[in-house]
Amino acid sequence: MSTTKISPEGKVALVSGANRGIGKAIAISFLEKGAKKVYAGARDVATLDGLLSRYPDRLVPTHLDVTDDSSIVKAAETARDVQILVNNAGVLQPGGFFSKDALDAFKIHLDVNVWGLLKLSHAFIEILKKNHPAAIINISSVAGLGNMPMIGSYSATKAAVHSITQGMRGELAPDNILVMGVYPGPIDTDMAKGIDLEKDSPENVASIIIQALKEGEEDVFPDPMSKQVGTGYMTNPKSIEKMFAEYRG
Ligand SMILES: NC(=O)c1ccc[n+]([C@@H]2O[C@H](COP(=O)([O-])OP(=O)(O)OC[C@H]3O[C@@H](n4cnc5c(N)ncnc54)[C@H](OP(=O)(O)O)[C@@H]3O)[C@@H](O)[C@H]2O)c1
């Protein structure tokens, strides 16, 4: 539990990958809970038209490709009032370390899920420090707590996000910045289309994140599967490794 607790009401947030899935649900929930402004990051800002017509005064469409340094720099030059940074953008290509094109897939996962998150956080850190109390929300995955061979390459990058989150938390402890790691299980978005497991809704993930922000929670397990994995990870990490090893696709 962090001593920094922060409600989205009256706050300014930036969400990467806000045009669909979990990112869109987070942007909507923040606005519904009274956020002053949400910078909605998207690679193609036209995909934000629906959201913009719903929240014309408080939603700011922001061109953001986390693999493109110039778009990150430009976003940070524009959004100087951000207090909550949501590192949500991510990609998933199925496959393990010996699948066809495994090395190319690993690079794509690294570029978006790891480097993208790190570069965006770097670009915004002085802004967050200045505007504290603040929060960085990193969307990892249950697959970051144990490797699933059917998405082995993706899992490894989500484990990196988990470690980065821990490191950021330690480093930023004196700065009144809540660093939250979110570890969802299967959520009903485009990313999980091909995954044949029971899925929770992106809206539920968003609402749990808001509650966690208010309570200063650092590790967030939003859905039934992630709650189970979270408990297993805290008590017996090897049991998670063994359970996930069965997910071979
Ligand atoms: N769905 C799940 O079961 C699940 C479970 C655990 C964790 N997660 C994590 O939750 C986050 C959101 O996933 P989701 O389920 O909402 O997936 P999604 O529906 O596929 O959405 C992914 C989002 O990331 C954006 N994105 C991809 N590459 C980007 C880049 N280079 N720069 C900026 N934005 C980029 C996409 O933008 P475009 O529309 O331009 O492609 C889209 O907005 C991801 O980090 C994912 O790993 C998801």
Concise account of the structure shown:
The protein is built from 8 helices and 7 strands.
Write out the CATH superfamily name. NAD(P)-binding Rossmann-like Domain
Mass-distribution shape: globular
Per DSSP, the total helix count is 8
Task: Write out the distinct hetero groups bound to the structure.
Answer: NADP nicotinamide-adenine-dinucleotide phosphate
> What is the top-level CATH class?
Alpha Beta
What's the β-strand tally?
7
| Tally of separate domains | 1
Taken as a percent bin, the fraction of beta residues is 5-15%
| Poorly predicted sequence stretches spanning 5 or more consecutive residues | none
* Average pLDDT taken over every residue: 97
Strand arrangement, major sheet: 3-2-1-4-5-6-7
Radius of gyration: 17 Å
Largest sheet, strands/sense/barrel: 7 strands, parallel
CATH topology call: Rossmann fold
Name given to the CATH architecture? 3-Layer(aba) Sandwich
Distance between the termini: 36 Å
Secondary-structure-derived class: alpha/beta
Q: What share of residues is helical?
A: 40-55%
Question: What's the assembly state of these chains?
Answer: single chain
